[in-house]
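User: For my dataset I need records formatted as: sequence, then C-alpha cells, nothing else. Please produce one.
Assistant:
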Amino acid sequence: MKVPLLDLTQQYERFAAEAQAAIARVCQSQHFILGAEGRELERSLASYTGCQHGIGVSSGTDALLLALMALGIGPGDEVITSPFTFFATAGTIARVGARPVFCDIDRETFNLSPALVAEFLAQSCEVRGSAGGRELVNRKTGGRIKAIMPVHLYGQACDMDAFMEIAERYGLHVIEDAAQAIGAQDARGRMVGSVGDIGCFSFFPTKNLGAFGDAGMCTTNDAALAERMRVLRVHGMEPKYHHSLIGGNFRLDEIQAAVLNVKLEFLDKWRDAREAHARQYTERLQAKAAGGAVVTPAPSRAGRHVWNQYVIRAQRRDELRPYLASAGIGTEIYYPIPLHLQQCFAYLGHRPGEMPESERAAAEVLALPVFPELSPAQIDYVAGTIERFYAPAVTQQIA
C-alpha cells in the first residue's frame, strides 16, 4: 500500500470543474490583480475568521512581513516568538531590521509558552523613559520590545488569553502567525487570526486551504490598520503614483483568489475529515503504544485543532522514518533544526541547550499523513507499520 504524506490530486477531482470555470472567468475578464475575486475572498475570509477586515496578499510570508511593517516595527525593535516554527516567522522579523527574541515552547502543544514569555519580560526587561515616551527595553541588548508573535503550530491555537493579557500589561502588539491554522479556535471559541492586532494566513498548496501557488491573507478588526496594510501592499501608493509610505509588492492575484473562493466552501468538510483521521490514529497508536516509544498529540487544551499536521513524538525517529518510507509511507519532520540554532541567526548568540523543549521536539517529531482523502485502511496501515517497527523492542521489554 502507498500512503503519501499529501495527495492533492484526489481533492482536485472533487472541485475541478468549479475551479476551471473560476479561472476561465478571470481569464475572460483579463483583470488579474486586485479585482472582484480578491475582494470576495477578503470578505469571505474576514467573515469566516470573525474579523472585520481581510487584506489579500501574495503569500503567508508576505502577510507576516506586511503586519510588521504596518505596526511600524523596524531597526532597534524586538519581537518575541517561537524558535520551533517555519523559518518565515523569524525571518520576516529580521527582514524589517528588527531582532527575533526566542522563548521556548510548551512540551505538549509545541506552541510558544506564555509562561516563559512572561518570565522573560519580568526578568530580562525594564521600562525606561518618561511618561510621554516610555519603552520596554531588553536589558541585555538594549532593544525595544514591541510585539509578540505566537504561532498556532500544526493547526492548534495558542493560549491567546494569556498572550493578550501579557500584551496589555506591557503595551505590546500581538501578531498571530496562523499560517497552519485557518479555522482553529481558542479556548473561548474565537477563530485564530481574530484575537491579536493582526492575523496572518498562508494559502500555500499544502495548507488546509491551499491555492494553486502562493497566496496569503492578513486579518484585523482595526479599520485604520487595515487601510494602512492595503496601501503598503501596493508600494505604499495612495492615490496612484503618490507614495506617503514605503511599502512592497504584496498583492494577491485574481487566479489564486478565484481558486480559493471555490475551495473555501469545502474547508469545514475537509477539517472534519482531518479530525476523524487524527482520532483514528490516536486510538490505534494509544491502544498499542509501542512500549511508550510513540507519543500521540495531546488533546487540545484550547478549542478546536484543525490538524494541518498530525505529529507524533517517536523514539529512534531517524530510524523509523526510513522504515516507513520503505513501506511506501510518506512522512516529514517539521522542524529538524530550531530557529535559534540556524546558521543565519548565529548573530543572536544562542547555543545548544538554551531552548530544551524546542530542541527535544526537533529530535523527536514526525508528521504522518492526515490529508482529508485518506481511507481508514490507509491509516490502519500507517499505524500498523509503526507498531511493527517497535515490536521487537516491545517484545524484549516485556520479556
